[in-house]
């Protein structure tokens, strides 16, 4: 098995600390499978956490036992990857756009700290991403009644294609139940709470279309990029978050 580089190992140590704090019965074998490394590598990681980071890692012996981090131990400061920080920053922006009065007191402070952690170039990219996420009116009760959470694999593929401006191949189920294959450019995301829509160029018809994310049955990335179009290309209501869907 290939030796991991230093950044990968540091990230794995952070995740291990969180897992041991939250999970009551982690085993070396389970942790090795989850992180894609050998049990020996996990054992070395645990030894490093004990000997050099001073973490109190307890081991329960016998059947049903496992590893855990002492409950009185904190996991330290929070380290986020660039992708994690972008997702959190965008989530904060969406929450602020929704104008919910609850739990917003410190969001602006958190947002400023996240922004300050980015380079000028990355801040520009994040601002562009934020401008592509719109919040409109709450979905009608009719729409909400039929809405459900999209499959996780669909969400992941759509998320990556949206950020990377990458064409996406999807299987889409219409309201009447008919399913069709589409090839789309995911330009914008629109939230009409609690339902998300992707505003895209549909290559099947060569025109802008809006798709309900929970009706996307499958999604596959293509590694083919597209050039972002301005909101005006999708109609005057897009910039207002009032797109008719």
Automatic annotation (TrEMBL):
Residues 9-87 form the HTH deoR-type domain. Pfam families: HTH_11, WYL. The keyword Transcription applies. SUPFAM superfamilies: Winged helix' DNA-binding domain (SSF46785). The keyword Transcription applies. One of its GO terms (molecular function) is DNA-binding transcription factor activity. Keywords: Transcription, Transcription regulation. It comes from the Bacteria. This is Transcriptional regulator. It comes from Sulfitobacter mediterraneus.
